[in-house]
Amino acid sequence: MNVRRQHISGTVIAAVSALGLGTLSACSGASAAGNTDKFDVVASFYPMAYLAEQIGGDHVHVTSLTEPGQEPHDLEISAKQTAQLQESDAVLYLKNLQPSVDDAVAQSEVKTKIDAASLTTLEKHGNEVGGHAAEHDDHANEELAGLDPHIWLDPVRYAQVAEGVGKAFEKADPDHAADYKKNTAALVKKLAGLNTRFEAGLKNTKTKVFITTHAAFGYLAERYGLTEEAINGLDPESEPSANRVKDLEKMAKADGVTTVFYETLVSDKTAKTIASDANLRTDVLDPIEGITSKSKGDDYFQVMESNLKALQSALGAK
Questions:
Q1: From CA 27, how far away is CA 43, in angstroms rounded?
Q2: Per-residue confidence (pLDDT) for residue 33, from 0 to 100
Q3: Which end of the chain is more exposed for a tag (fewer CB within 10 A), N or C?
C-alpha cells in the first residue's frame, strides 16, 4: 500500500509541468518500412518496442512510431507511418497515452492489435499527491485526470503485459509460437529478478518519500511502499515561487527528503532551483520513455538498475 502524505500544498502540486513524456527509440529503425519477410510489429514507443523485440527475437521486425528525441505524448502520426501501420502484421501500443496512435490504430485494418493497457491493471495516480490536481495546467489535467499510463515502471505490471504480448504473438504467428513462449518466459523471469532487487534494495531506507518533477513513478512507489511527491503544472523554464519552495522545504525536513529528481530529456533548471533554495540535491530518475545518449544505460533493465541506485542514495538505503 502506498503511503500518502499531505505536506505539499495544492499550489506546490501545480509547480513543475508534467515535463513531457521523454523520448523513445526502438532498437530497430523507426522509419523502416513494414511488409518484410518477418512478423512485422509496429510499436507505439520504446517500452512497447522493447517488449516486442525481446519476445519476438529473430522472428520479428519491430519499428517504433516515436522517434528518438520525440515526446510521445505529442506524437502526430505521419502519412508514411499510417501506411506503415497498414502493412504491418501487428501493432503494440498503450491506449490513452498517445491520442494520434489510438486514432490510427482504430482506423487501421491491422489484424492483430495489442493494447498493453488491457493486459494489466491501471490506477489513478497524481491527484492524491498532496491531495490536489494541477488545476491550471490543461496538459497535466489530461494526464492526471485519467488512469496512470506508466505501467512499465512497475516490473510486475510490465511482466503481466509481457505475458499478454507473448500470447498474442503466439496466436498471430503460430509457426514460431514455441520461441515466443520461451522468450516471454525468459523476460518474465528477468523482470521477477528486477522486482526482487527493488524490493530488497528499498526495504530499509531512512525515508520513503521522494520528489519528482514528473508524476511518472506512482506504480513504482506503490509497489515498493514509497511516496512520490510530484511537482506538476509549472512550466519547466519558469522559477518556483518563494511559497512553493517554502512548502517543499517544510516537507523535505519533515520527511527527511534529500533529493529532487528530474529527467534526462528535459531541462533541469526548475529542479535545481528548488533544490538549491531548499538545500537539497538533484539527481536523475528516468521514466524510460526512450533510450538516448543521455540515458544511464542502453536498455530498459540497465536504466531501471540506475533508477534503483538513485532511489537508494536519495532515500538513505541501509
A1: 11
A2: 46
A3: N
CA contacts within 13 A on the Cβ side of 172: 24
Q: Which residue's entry shows cell 488491457?
A: 118
What are phi and psi for residue 106, nearest 5 degrees?
Answer: -60, -35
Which comes out higher in pLDDT, residue 56 or 250? Answer: 56
Residue burial 32-44, b: 16+ Cβ < 10 Å; e: rest: eebeeeebbbbbb
3-state secondary structure the chain: CCCCCCCCCHHHHCCCCCCCCCCCCCCCCCCCCCCCCCEEEEECCHHHHHHHHHHHHHHEEEEECCCCCCCHHHCCCCHHHHHHHHHCCEEEECCCCCHHHHHHHHHCCCCEEEEHHHHCCCCCCCCCHHHCCCCCCHHHHHHHHCCCCCHHHCHHHHHHHHHHHHHHHHHHCHHHHHHHHHHHHHHHHHHHHHHHHHHHHCCCECCCEEEECCCCCHHHHHHCCCEEEECCCCCCCCCCCHHHHHHHHHHHHHHCCCEEEECCCCCCHHHHHHHHHCCCEEEECCCCCCCCCCCCCCCHHHHHHHHHHHHHHHHCEC
- 128-186: per-residue pLDDT in tens? 333 233 333 344 444 444 788 999 999 999 999 999 999 999 999 999 999 999 999 99
Residues 6 or more apart whose CB falls under 8 angstroms from that of 252 comprise: 211, 258, 278, 280
